[in-house]
């Protein structure tokens, strides 16, 4: 820089010195809005999860059991549902020996304690972890047991099986014993 100034003075030229650097402060940018959590969706349905709402009517299913299918002797369909408030319903439709179809339905109130006990026994028996039975059979109806945690937005677990043996034996026996105790006049697999 000194050499440039001396040379410019000797030539009688004006001093060409670059102007000092101007530091421009950065323009403040507005802070980005906080990231909104991703909307939760109902698994398998893609629908938004409902917001929390009070449970003024605690009447949610906690156990759903179904036996349905044809056999060489005829057709059988049984459906049982136990609810968190202690109520239960069961229905059956059967047609055996070429006779007419027989339909029956009943409602019972075993009580919240009895239903909670059934759910606890099913949990202890492994019903919340059972997989579908990988078995090829004929002449047996398919049984499906679905257990749900109590509440309005509960998660469920279902397992289907052809034969109540191995890990399916205890849960099947528990549900059939409950059916026999609270629906003694209804035709069902355990009768």
Q: What would the keywords be for this entry?
A:
single chain, 191 residues, alpha+beta, Mago nashi protein, 19% helix
Could you explain the architecture of this structure?
This protein has 191 residues and is of the alpha+beta class. The chain contains 3 helices and 6 strands. It has a domain at 61-182: 2-Layer Sandwich (Mago nashi protein). 19% of the residues lie in helices and 26% in strands. It has a 6-stranded antiparallel β-sheet with strand order 4-3-2-1-5-6, covered by helices on one side. A hairpin with a 5-residue loop joins strand 3 and strand 4 (102-108). It starts with a helix and ends in a 9-residue tail after the last helix.
Q: Could you tell me the CATH topology label of the domain at 61-182.
A: Mago nashi protein
Summarize the biggest pleated sheet: 6 strands, antiparallel
DSSP summary, beta strand count: 6
Widest sheet, order of strands: 4-3-2-1-5-6
> Under the CATH scheme, which architecture of the domain at 61-182 would be assigned?
2-Layer Sandwich
> Would you tell me the overall average pLDDT?
81
The fraction of residues assigned to DSSP E strands is 25-35%
């Amino acid at each position: 820089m000194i050499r440039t100034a001396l040379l410019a003075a000797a030539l009688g030229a004006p001093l060409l010195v670059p102007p000092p650097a101007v530091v421009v402060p950065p323009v403040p940018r507005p802070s980005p809005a906080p990231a909104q959590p991703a909307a939760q969706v109902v698994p398998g349905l893609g629908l938004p999860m409902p917001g929390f709402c009070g449970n003024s009517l605690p009447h949610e299913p906690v156990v759903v059991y179904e036996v349905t299918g044809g056999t060489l002797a005829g057709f059988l369909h049984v459906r049982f549902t136990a609810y968190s408030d202690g109520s239960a319903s069961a229905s059956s439709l059967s047609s055996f020996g070429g006779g007419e179809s027989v339909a029956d339905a009943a409602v019972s109130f075993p009580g919240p304690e009895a239903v909670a006990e059934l759910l606890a026994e099913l949990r202890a028996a492994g019903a919340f972890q059972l997989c579908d039975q990988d078995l090829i059979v004929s002449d047996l109806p398919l049984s499906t047991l679905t257990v749900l945690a109590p509440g309005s937005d509960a998660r469920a677990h279902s397992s289907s099986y052809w034969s109540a043996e191995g890990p399916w034996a205890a849960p099947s026996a528990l549900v059939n014993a409950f059916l026999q105790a609270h629906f003694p006049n209804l035709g069902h697999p355990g009768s």
